[in-house]
């Protein structure tokens, strides 16, 4: 078993010399001033009919973080891209909110409003403000948060997934990322409006997302925030469970005397214990049922990085045990998901046999990967 120091050295070299340059150079469309959504395994852009707000915002946030951390100098480009996003996505059809996607002509190609994309544009504004110090970015973030409250409210709390709604299904995932964005904005600004929204989301999560008696974080709900299916048939994604564990730790770090501090810590321990009971092996499968039985044995890259981030930071267990699994997962990351032959790229999903189940590299994964890498680089000795 390699030491954490060995893993940190490998992550630093791979991020700074391969991944960040690849996705800033081959992954950036100079003519449009926006990021590409996908690359081939040879590193060539793949033209697509839509350029989603979510992907653009994730890339902006990632490169702002990389600049702040001294890992890669593309912060000015990221800030310029954010200005492009505001011009082309925000109220691009004359209505409140941010459109979902642009077409190849940079005109709106899908004007629905989705909570997921709105969460990430807030997240991008938080990191952009931290890099630039431009308070106008906080003003836009506050206005966008007010638009979320106006556009997406659900009658029994929380938010609907999209407007116009495609179904009555409600989801935890966009709420999780909205929580992440609000915590980021609160940390960089100390404005209470962002903490207030974060605590409202936490209250819903503690009440509904983790049903009493299961300690499982469910994905889908009715409009009344009850589980969509009977027990044993509800989808659980271990990657999201790891992500929530980390976010609960972030809430406790940023608001140790917050309204939900005690309940959040208790929930974090329960989710972490369940992760180890239901996923004892090094890799996280894509999905389980809420009774712990396997639903999807494929393994995407992002759940692995979320688990690694958690093991490096905020996991409620002693470091030596966490780091042992972290080192094993890190080795598997570089041998199975990000081999040297891809020069900073990755295989997004593996099938049950460990073979590639995709034919391209999605830009959207960089957000997850960078967050894990940065947490590993900052992890203290065991």
From TrEMBL:
Signal peptide: none annotated. Coiled coil: none annotated. Gene3D superfamilies: 1.50.10.10. Keywords: Isomerase. It comes from the Bacteria. Belongs to the N-acylglucosamine 2-epimerase family. This is AGE family epimerase/isomerase.
